[in-house]
Automatic annotation (TrEMBL):
Keywords: ATP-binding, Nucleotide-binding, Transport. Pfam families: ABC_tran. PANTHER family: ALIPHATIC SULFONATES IMPORT ATP-BINDING PROTEIN SSUB 2 (PTHR42788:SF19), TAURINE IMPORT ATP-BINDING PROTEIN-RELATED (PTHR42788). Residues 3-209 form the ABC transporter domain. The keyword Nucleotide-binding applies. GO terms for molecular function: ATP binding; ATP hydrolysis activity. This is ATP-binding cassette domain-containing protein. It comes from the Bacteria. The keyword ATP-binding applies.
Amino acid sequence: MRVSAYRLGHRFGDGHWLFRGLTADFLPGHVYALTGPSGSGKSTLLSLLAGWEAPLEGSVKRIGDGRVAWVFQNPHGVPNRTALDHVALPGLARGEEPARADADARLLLERFGLARVAGRPFSALSGGEAQRLMLARGIACEPALLLVDEPTAQLDLATAREVNDSLARISAEDTIVVVATHDERTRDACTDIVDLRKYQVAPSRDAGP
Ligand SMILES: Nc1ncnc2c1ncn2[C@@H]1O[C@H](COP(=O)(O)OP(=O)(O)OP(=O)(O)O)[C@@H](O)[C@H]1O
């Protein structure tokens, strides 16, 4: 899949424009950081790219097929299921043999520094381990577009560093990864930056095109 945003603009109701005139291509194999101050519309842009929200101006074209997966700020898992179960499940759901799904899941856990905790229940993982597990599970879903919302927002500095290190390893050949973030280190771990400040509109231009 390839996602093209063309002259995108959005606001809610008669509120101010969050951004206007945003044109950008999102390509597989890249990890994009969406940056900008709180309230600038980073999560909104994720929804527009996913097609969950329709833009008020401009267009989002998704060329090609594929799944969209989200990784949210707060990791959600099944407390008594192991880390391995969480990452193997998407493969099983696609009809993979259990041995194959397990082997693929173990490789992903290794890539995200989680091999050591593969057999541990979700409830016993640290915050950083749980968040990295969500990234590993996101990739296990083999999405064409993986949207990640503020993956380090709830984490202390050391734990955030672990997650940022794993973000640098997240890029997968066939997946577009887009990460909404405030965290400079997350931004540094991404391959490309879309800074929403560039598309903010002065209030005097809010009246219309
Ligand atoms: N469904 C909605 N209806 C009305 N207003 C909304 C809706 N969703 C978001 N907003 C408003 O749009 C603005 C941008 O929100 P958004 O969550 O996209 O920003 P953000 O850059 O992700 O912020 P943060 O960094 O604080 O998470 C905010 O003022 C928010 O209150």
